[in-house]
Amino acid sequence: MTYYDANNVNPAADLESAMDFQIGEMFIPPMDHDLDCADIPFEDDGTYFDPMEPPMMCGDGSAPFVSSTASGFAQQLPHLEGGDKDKSVALYNHIVQHYHFVSDNKGRYYACRSGFKAVPVDSTEYDELLNSICVNELGMMMSSSTLTTVKDSLLPIIKTHSSPALVGIRSVYHNGVYYYRLNDTTVLQIAGGNFYSGVPADAGVYFAGSRTFQNQVMPDFDSPATLLPELVKAVFNVDPEEMLRYLAHLCCFFMPHISVPLLVLNGGHGTAKSTAAKMIMDLVDPSTVDVTAMPKDEQGLTALLAGKYIVGLDNIGKLSRKESDKLCIACTGGYDPQRQYYTNADLLSVPLKCNIILNGIGTLVTRPDLAERSNVIYFNRLKKRMTDSQVWEQFNAKKPKLLGSIFNTIRLGLPMVSTVLEGYTDLPRMAEFSTYGAAFIKAMGLDPIQFVKDYTASCSAFVGDCAEMDDLYLLVKAFVTDRGGFYQEPAKTLLADLNNYAECKHKLIDKMTPSTLSRALNDAEDDLRRMGVSVTIKHDTPKSITLQLPTAAAQPTAAPVGNEN
């Protein structure tokens, strides 16, 4: 969509020439007399559009647009005297004259002036923008209460007149075209197997501003896709057996429209896991903030996952159930409901979708549902130590070639996504990652089927390991083993027996009802089978549950619970 720029209209133009703009263009009316600004001395030929009136329609009746004489919008606002009320009018009119507004598919609104930059209207960056306009463009100071009044007055107009758009943080994929924001003035575009620069005016693509945003270095586009494995090997301490999965994951981090697994960097002390996480983040989305510790509370984790393109969580221990569940949502995309501030019952649904790197020693992921969304890369101990300055000097020297190879891999790989695994039916969880990863691996001249097999085997083994570590699964396996390998009782009886058994064994399990226990065992059927425990649930009245080890005879074996040690 093309947007109407009031600055380009001649205030002295007559009505016919002032209306000479394309159908479908949009602008927002300035503040009218209902807000006590009727005394503003506009020219005689300037008119106001009433925002409460229904908008006119395009000639084909398909899309609304606002119509009025353009000269009234284009003329310069007079200098107002008298106080904050006049200041609010001046700021309001300046915003609607020089900015347009867009909304993304998550219901968030953005202010845009020119080019591809967009500022979320619910962010501190928007407050800073308004203050900057007051000081630098209008030459006045404004109190926070007056600023809030202007924002509140603008919001219903913004919601009514905003245009739908795609808004990304670092990259956007739309209609087969890939956009990557290199800096404040340059966007790389990959379309039809070629590189271009810029965003077409009618693309409806924008990039949200951020105080932590840093410019990307200019890629070396002469660096071919086939060189990427060699460059990655020279910079990252990755085992050759892990290389295909690592290369695919690195390239998929650049894809904003697909669900990408968590990249779990594991290994002992001195394996450069934290440094690798920082380098990946610097390649994908340079920022003034790189890796962070796990936030102390749920709201902090939600804010972190909602506001970044890629998040690196450093030196992580065992994840809690709530942390694991939230990372699952952010990995595949979803919403986290939060109570809106200063209300009792209003809910605010916070969209979560970002790329995630976890780094730590030992067992980080213990929940099978998160394990299914993870790609674990094990790092070997470094053979040669270097100082931090030496490490980053080497990385920065290779960074333009690394980026160039990655973008050439994306350029060649995107056209192959729909065909690279044609006929292959044994895809694992996170199938989009497998498909795009296979296309990028093929673009590097490597074997895409081998990558899918490696990822499938790794994921399956990791899920099995996590199932072994789940407290409930271990308790169920020990419980049925102590009863001769076979147990069959109603869900209520099983719950009581499990609680007694856990108490005798000094174990702690979550509080459950018979129904929640039945659902938990049903959900865990595949994981328990990997541990050698089969689960059969008969939906009789009452519901009965059968737990059995492969070698056990099909007969119930009772054990006196009070004798457990």
Question: What does the model show?
Answer:
A six-stranded mixed sheet has the order 6-3-4-5-12-7. It is globular and about 85 Å long. It is α/β, with parallel strands linked by helices. The protein has helices at residues 15-18, 71-74, 84-98, 124-137, 144-161, 228-235, 243-252, 273-284, 298-306, 321-332, 368-371, 388-413, 431-443, 448-469, 471-482, 491-504, 514-523, 525-530, and strands spanning 56-57, 64-65, 100-103, 109-112, 117-120, 163-164, 166-168, 171-174, 177-181, 187-191, 194-197, 205-208, 262-266, 310-313, 334-339, 347-352, 355-360, 374-378, 486-490, 534-538, 544-548. The model is unreliable at 1-84 and 560-565 (pLDDT under 50).
Can I get a quick summary?
The protein has 565 residues and is an alpha/beta fold. Helix content is 38%, strand content 16%. It starts with 14 loop residues before the first helix and ends in a 17-residue tail after the last strand.
Coarse shape:
globular
- For this structure, the quaternary state is single chain
Report the mean per-residue pLDDT as an integer: 80
The stretches of 5 or more residues where confidence is low (pLDDT under 50) are 1-84, 560-565
Number of strands: 21
**Biggest sheet layout:** 6 strands, mixed
Enumerate the strands of the largest sheet in spatial order, edge to edge or round the barrel.
6-3-4-5-12-7
Q: Give helix % range.
A: 25-40%
Radius of gyration: 30 Å
The computed structural class is alpha/beta
Report the sheet-strand fraction: 15-25%
Number of helices: 18
Report, as a whole number of angstroms, the end-to-end distance.
73 Å
